């Protein structure tokens, strides 16, 4: 994709303001960890891997070298504050805390060059995410044996949601590249419209054939349009395989099961959270009801209407046909076998 969701400029981070898409391409200049946390909270940047990447750079910005020398103690204090601020910006996607902790760990016991060390680690996280996306694309495309596949996706798990390629959309891109894709059905994804605004924008840029549907059309489309795969991203996969993703994903998984359509989750290992035992333990972000009673700035429900806005739901592992990761595709029951044991130098078992 031509436009990246963020890029590092040696002293600050430029974040594409996704709230303005598809009408306008405009970047926000982030000079501090607070700027980055605000961009995440307000959803200028969103998508689990992307918020992890920008949070990693945000941590480095907390110890940006300034003209005035700051004692180590105060720099460590700033890091601690930045870490909790960034982690609290959005609670569901585990990539956020994962990336913050990873960057902090690189400076443990270090007294100098914190900024350099941390920016280097942030860059590494970004590059690894890109490589993982490409690998997922290759593994995922192998699942589709037909010549003319029709797939359905939800929300935006594309270049905008990652370091610049996409997880679910990375697989779709690869199918298109291999000339194995007939069309993509894009769920509009109420209430934030990530499908209509962002996924449709990405696909249209590359002329990948798609049709936009409202979320409540999915059952009908599955029944009448020969959909042969649903591919979605994820925000946190619990140790038992239960998967938190954008609200509406669970509906799709139920519908897919009813129509005997395989339901795949594109999962970089940065999104697997072994500390979260099951889906019941995933914190679900509750966003402002304004985002439900209004569309953009237009009110669509009577004043005073109470609305709920859980931003994510949890798909039980039993509804998932397979996880597509950078290490291969595997069945939910094999999820844990892919994680190297602590202290073991043996590579994880090869997936299919
Ligand atoms: O609220 P969002 O837009 O951050 O939600 C994004 C999703 O649910 C994505 O599917 C998920 O983060 C995976 S992105 C590769």
Question: Could you characterize what this model shows?
Answer:
Helix 2 runs antiparallel to helix 3 (72-89), helix 2 runs parallel beside helix 4 (94-106) and helix 2 packs antiparallel against helix 5 (114-141). The protein is globular. It has 2 domains: 6-132, translation initiation factor eif-2b, domain 1 (Four Helix Bundle (Hemerythrin (Met), subunit A)); 138-338, Rossmann fold, CATH 3.40.50. It contains 10 helices and 16 strands. By secondary structure, the protein is of the alpha/beta class. Helix content is 36%, strand content 17%. The longest helix has 28 residues, at 114-141. The mean pLDDT is 94. Strands 6-5-4-7-10-15-16 form a 7-stranded mixed beta sheet. The chain binds 5-S-methyl-1-O-phosphono-5-thio-D-ribulose (MRU). Residues 46-49, 93, 155, 157, 161-162, 167, 194, 233-235, 245-246, 311 line the site of 5-S-methyl-1-O-phosphono-5-thio-D-ribulose.
What strand order characterises the main sheet?
6-5-4-7-10-15-16
* Mean pLDDT across residues: 94
The structure class reads alpha/beta
Q: Which H/E pattern describes the elements?
A: EEEHHHHHEHEHEHEEEHEEHEEEEE
Q: Based on CA inertia axes, which overall geometry fits?
A: globular
* Low-pLDDT residue spans: none
Return the CATH topology of the largest domain: Rossmann fold
Q: How many structural domains in the coordinates?
A: 2
* Total DSSP helices: 10
Beta-strand content: 15-25%
**How many extended strands?**
16
The radius of gyration computed from the alpha-carbon positions, rounded to a whole number of angstroms, is: 20 Å
CATH homologous superfamily grouping of the largest domain: Translation initiation factor eif-2b, domain 2
Helix content: 25-40%
Report the biggest beta sheet as strand number plus sense, adding barrel if it closes: 7 strands, mixed
Q: What is the top-level CATH class of the largest domain?
A: Alpha Beta
Distance between the termini: 29 Å
CATH architectural category of the largest domain: 3-Layer(aba) Sandwich
The molecules bound to the chains, other than polymers, are:
5-S-methyl-1-O-phosphono-5-thio-D-ribulose
């Amino acid at each position: 994709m031509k436009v990246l969701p963020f890029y590092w400029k040696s002293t600050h981070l430029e974040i594409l303001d996704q709230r303005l898409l598809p009408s306008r391409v405009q970047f926000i200049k982030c000079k501090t960890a607070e700027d980055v946390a605000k961009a995440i909270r307000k959803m200028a940047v969103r998508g689990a891997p992307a918020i992890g990447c920008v949070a990693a750079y945000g941590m480095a910005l907390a110890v940006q070298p300034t003209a005035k020398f700051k004692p180590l103690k105060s720099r460590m204090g700033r890091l601690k504050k930045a870490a909790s601020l960034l982690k609290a910006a959005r609670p569901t996607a585990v990539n956020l805390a994962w990336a913050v902790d990873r960057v902090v760990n690189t400076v443990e016991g270090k007294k100098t060059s914190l900024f350099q060390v941390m920016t280097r680690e942030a860059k590494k996280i970004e590059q690894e995410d890109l490589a993982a996306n490409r690998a997922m694309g290759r593994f995922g495309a192998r699942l589709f044996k037909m010549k003319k596949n029709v797939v359905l996706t939800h929300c935006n798990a594309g270049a905008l949601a990652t370091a610049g390629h996409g997880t679910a959309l990375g697989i779709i891109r690869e199918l298109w590249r291999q000339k194995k894709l007939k069309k993509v059905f894009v769920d509009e994804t109420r209430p934030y419209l990530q499908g209509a605004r962002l996924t449709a924008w990405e696909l249209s840029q590359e002329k990948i054939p798609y049709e936009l549907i409202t979320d409540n059309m999915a059952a009908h489309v599955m029944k009448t349009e020969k959909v042969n795969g649903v591919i979605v991203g994820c925000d946190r996969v619990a140790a038992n395989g239960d998967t938190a993703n954008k609200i509406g994903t669970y509906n799709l998984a139920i519908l897919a099961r009813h129509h005997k359509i395989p339901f795949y989750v594109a999962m970089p290992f940065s999104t697997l959270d072994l500390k979260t035992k099951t889906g019941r333990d995933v914190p679900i972000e509750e966003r402002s009801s304004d985002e439900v009673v209004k569309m953009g700035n237009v009110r669509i429900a009577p004043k005073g209407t109470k609305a709920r806005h859980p931003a994510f739901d949890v798909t039980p592992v039993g509804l998932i046909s397979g996880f597509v990761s950078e290490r291969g595709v595997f069945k939910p029951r094999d999820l844990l076998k892919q994680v190297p044991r602590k202290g073991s130098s043996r590579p994880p078992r090869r997936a299919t």
